[in-house]
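Troubleshooting log. The previous run stalled partway through. Resubmitting the same three chains, unchanged.
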Amino acid sequence: MNSKLWLAIAVVVIIAVIGAFLAFQQQPPAQTTTPKTATVPITQTTKPKGNIYVIYDIGGRGDLSFNDMAYLGASRAAKDFGLGLKEVQSKTQDDYVPNLRAAAKSGDAVIAVAVGFLMTDAVKQVSQEFPNVKFAIIDGYIPDRPNVMSVLFRENEGSALVGALAALTAYYYNCTKVGIVLGMEIPVLWKFEIGYAYGVRWAERFIKQKFGKDVKFDILYVYTGSFNDPAKGKQAAEVMLAQGVCVIYQAAGATGLGVFEAVAEAGKKAGRTMGPPFAIGVDADQDYIKPGFILASMMKRVDVGVYTAAKMAVEGSFKGGVLELGIKEGGISVSTLDDLSQFLEIGIRAGAVKESDAQNIINTVKEMRSKIPTWIWEAVDKFKQDIVSGAEKVPLPTTQDQVVQLRKELGLGTVG
Amino acid sequence: MRRLALSLLNTGLALFLAFVLGAIAMWISGYDPLLSYKSMLLTPLSDLTYLFSALAFSAPILLTGLTFAVGLKAGLFNIGAEGQTYMGALGAVAAAYLTRDVSALPLAAFLGVAFAVAWSAIPALLKIWRGVNEVVGTIMMNWVAYWLVIMAVSTIFANPSQPEESVKMPEAARLTPLVAGTDLTLAVPLAYLTAVLIYVFLRYSVWGYRISISGQNPTVAKAYGIRPEQAVLVAFGIGALTAGLAGVLQVVARPPSYSLARNLANVYGLGFDGITAAMLGRGHPIGVLLASVFLGILQEGARHMQIEVGTPFEFIRVIQGLLILFLALQMLRKI
Amino acid sequence: MKVSLREIRKVFSDGTHALRGVSLDVFPGEVLALLGENGAGKTTLMKILSGIYRPTSGEIYVDGRRVKPKNARDALKLGIAMVHQHLSLIPGLTALENVAVLEGASLSPVSTELRRRVEKIAEELGFEIEWDRDVEELPLGMRQRVEIVKALYWGAQLLILDEPTTVLSPPEVKSLFQVVKRLKEQGRSVVYITHKIPEVMEIADRVVVLRRGLKSAEFSPPYDAKRLVEAMVGEVKTEAVERLGKPGERPVLEVKDLWVYDGDRAVVQGVDLVVREREILAIVGVEGNGQEHLVETIVGVRKRSRGMIKIYGGYAYIPDDRQKKALVLEMSLVENAIIGKENEFAKRGLISWQQAERFTAKLIEEFGIVAPGPWSSARQLSGGNQQKLVVGRELSRGAKLIVAHQPTRGLDVATTEYVQTLLIKTRNAGVGVLLVTSDLDEAYKIADTIAVMYRGKIVAYGPVEEMGIELVGKKMAGL
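Second attempt completed without errors. Output:
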């Protein structure tokens, strides 16, 4: 072999090692905290009574959303209850069953939490093989196993809150059009769509009451058919913006990142550093992604779900069936500045946000929020109280017919 | 004999280097390489459930690896296994959609393999008729298959009760685990048998011989009455057969879902893992078999490494990537 | 300029010992002929001198100074240039641009100054060259002249000509000799690599003979042809086999009005020929006059554009390049032995390798192939043994027609003799042979009929007795 080839090999190897090094410098710190939060107390105090197993689906950690929140909840539970934490990622769909099995076979699993509805079949199967092991599945629906707890969220409630926020903010800026961009049309997304529309109509009633004005909002919705196509999300949002929509809620996963992009671009084109137009984030606190243009985020507190499931397993109150978490249970909320700080911390650790930018982001979001009059925040809060008390019931569609009916009632309109 | 020893040595060297560099990467990132390797390589062998899981992972990789290996024999760089696997899985799903009893199983095998073969015929014919490089042709077909299958699974073949996946194989038509509580289905012996058959085909059949000759030297083949175009066609066809089978088995013989995920998560990447297996196995069917078992053990070991040591499974990818790099460099050197 | 080579050794990465310690001097104003058979190491030695190969050991001195040329450009700076057997001009550039561009350098526009100097050099040598045509369009002889001019333009004092007459017609050879003489008069040295004795006798001031990587002898005029040959090949012993009987009547190959195109160039233009039983038809001609296309069209590797080819009773094919066209070097002898007859060893689609191995062992024995064993790879065989394997395989086909394209090229004298004998024996057994060769001696030695091919056409055709050497020479040159 000649010297040039050796040189090429050496260069490639060095690049590979450095690349791996850099990649893991950024990623694992989130992971190396695992022993810190979980196993370190073990060695210092008594041996843990067992482990919490968290099994992620293919996306896994580092999504600054679902999975990272699951980790937050699990690590908090591990700390609070003196348990160890074992995280298992899945490379392919076929890893779900063996991952759950390995957790169950370990014999020290206090609870095995499957993060994500994609693992539904796998949890069904493995829970049958190991009837004495406790399982929880986030977002998956397995109602009939004594050893499986299905943790579900009432996203319709949270969507109603941000719907109200969207409509009131639009009203404040003299705009009467709001929109929602969704992913694939699957039943769970109906909750977002209908809840959002319900919140908008609630806001109309509120305005009528408070200001004696009759305002009628146009609610535009679009299913992009994809959860991982930001370009499609951007396109959908641009169409809405062109029609005069000024607040857009995204319930489309990574596709929604395009919505943020479109909204921020439109705002900057109009010479503003802050909305309107505004976007509303989903699942996690996404306010930091385009600070100043994201009004708030509808947070699905996966951390609360995981924590609650673990707590019940530890305390002995665990039972199979569905655990539904809504606003009342703290499983759903609208993002606050505190949430933002917490997420920025995760973001910095994962390398998605620069430390130096964090304070700027907080300041910008703070300033944006202060520009929205307090009566709006108070109105949303009141709406929240009414949902908690049961005075307001946000509809929960489960069938196609119901959705069609509700769309008609709530007057949703498609784009174009 | 000397050639065999030499290629074992080369493969061993590549493995050794990949593991050493992987260890360094682990060490730098703050994980214990020795414990990690112990969990990765030994735990899967310590328990029958884990071993069977490793073997279950090896089956589809082996089948797609054979696709690449047969291509190499014919002098082709056939990376179309990826898309052909999708098409195979799509065929199985179509069968599940069409019939709801045991007949779905043979129908799945037939449709899956037929789809895959039809899919491979396009780059094969493009190469023969228009001289389109097979790398370009197969990459193109991989992407077309990707979007086409996603579309089919999202629309006609969607599962109304589980939106994230296609219709499931009817219960009667599933190949369920041979040993309850493990992932060992008929897919594993079937894949291994296929490897042996491919070996016999390449080593003993007239067509296997013709493929080898025209792969090594098409000029010679042509001069003595072997038509390289036919060899290309046969090699593509055989390759599609195994890749299609991989796709079918991922649907009919992989608990618990027995369906095709809407995002293709249970077939995605198999074709490329197969290339690794084929390179590691030096293109020899039995070598590919051994390599796929090894890769299966790695994949199974990754989970135990996470659980027992807390080392992220991405290191498996680092090691596999380095392995491919070193094997590719060896191939380059030969050229 | 005096150049000295001292104890040059070269071992190639495949283990071939090409040179085993050769020392040699080249004096100014001298024409040194480097004589030897193919594979004797002549070209390797000169490639080392001209910087293309690096010696495994040994030293090079120019005017007493130790030099280590790393590439052809380095060597050229020292005044050493090589004109290769397979010319190395860049297609797509004009002749003049080819002179201007130096290996590894970028192409700069051709200046009038350069043109003037180039034309002057050409004039001094008596060359007429169409400087502004794409070199690809130039005849091979003219391309060779371009290379010579290029070497001189860049200041070469020592010119190495590697088998320069292979691509030339007899008149062109004559004028090449004139050029060599003129170069000598200019005080330059010429190393003339060849295996053709008559050429050596005509122009060499001194002859160094290489054999199997060693210097076997050195001669100065007057030369004795017989001693030259002996130094080159060792002892010559020939078992002469005569052609017996007249050619038969029944044809084994008929070609009528055959046209073959390479791109839009007609390389075979309306060839008619017939090979009969018990006949060796030799097609002679300077290489590159369409022979290759003719042969490869007959055996079906190339497509014909027009015309008819009829083969009666199957054919066997011995291609001109055994390593590229006849053997798969990476594969075993057994696998190579059954190419094109794999069906004979197969039952229900499966090949019996035992049977194939027995067949190969028989070939090895019958044709005296020196091989480690039937399962060793074809690459491990020497060139001569590779050719014996090819010839053995082809003769064992039992075909009525044998198409033999340069069957003895690059073989040592003994193997050449052996292959020629085999062809005659086969012919005597009633088989027809189409022999395409550029070696006139071979043609006259074994052929019944001789045809001359020139620019894609058969320009002369007749029984060997009627085809005098002068006539054939003239026709080969297109006169």
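Takeaways: Chains A and C do not touch (no CB pair under 8 Å). Residues 3-153 of chain A form a domain with the Rossmann fold fold (CATH 3.40.50.2300).
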